[in-house]
Design a protein that fits this description.
The protein has one domain: Alpha-D-Glucose-1,6-Bisphosphate, Chain A, domain 4. It has 3 helices and 7 strands. The protein has a 7-stranded antiparallel β-sheet with strand order 1-7-6-5-4-3-2. Strand 2 and strand 3 form a beta hairpin.
Length: 144
């Protein structure tokens, strides 16, 4: 599944980028993410993380890395191992009196146990709704 979601955040672009480019902030705003540990790097290209998530079917572990990085503009996180392979690319752009945050992503249900791995379109709709909710939480945090 491929998707794109955008929202305007009333916060400076540098603040928005710094927050989303640091995957360790994810447990604060991404409902499925329970814990994140940086295992290599200091941020930027090649930085690797260990991500503990709760998915339908139980707790899972993903290893991921920053696979593209343009400071202040764009960061891409790619899962290297674990179920539900994904690529999330966040872009930050100033617009009017706000910052536009765009998330482009691909994710697969591969690796989910039982029927959850075969839900197809229903899983896609649920995922998109969950991502919109997550981004709403992110917006509230950044606008405080």
């Amino acid at each position: 599944m491929t998707f794109e979601l955008s929202l305007d955040v009333i916060a400076p672009p540098a603040r928005v980028f710094a927050f989303v480019a640091d995957f360790t902030t994810m447990p604060r705003w991404y409902a499925a993410v329970r814990r994140v540990r940086r295992v290599e790097g200091t941020g930027g290209l090649g930085t690797r993380y260990e991500v503990h998530r709760d998915l339908p079917g139980g707790a899972v572990l993903n290893d991921l890395a920053i696979t593209s990085y343009s400071d202040g503009d764009e960061v891409t996180f790619t899962s290297l191992s674990g179920p539900t392979p994904f690529v999330y690319r966040y872009r930050v752009q100033p617009v009017r009196d706000a910052t536009q945050l765009t998330l482009e992503g691909t994710i697969s249900a591969a690796g989910l146990p039982g029927p959850a791995g075969h839900l197809g379109p229903l899983a896609e709709r649920l995922f998109k709704r969950g991502m919109r909710d997550n981004l709403g939480t992110l917006k509230r945090i950044l606008e405080q």
